[in-house]
Amino acid sequence: xxxxxxxxxxxxxxxxxxxxxxxxxxxxxxxxxxxxxxxxxxxxxxxxxxxxxxxxxxxxx
Length: 61
Hints:
Distance between the termini: 33 Å
Largest sheet: none
Strand content: under 5%
Structural class: mainly alpha
Number of strands: 0
Order of helices and strands: HH
Number of helices: 2
């Protein structure tokens, strides 16, 4: 029996935490100002949607 590798939380939760951080920045940016900041919020809030579409298309059927 081989020893198990140590649990690395960043390897498991790193990408979801990054998506959550980008989404939070997008939500805050949407509340702050208009103009260029709206474009930043749209871009940031599209990240979770694009990630879900990418993972849905990549999964094996």
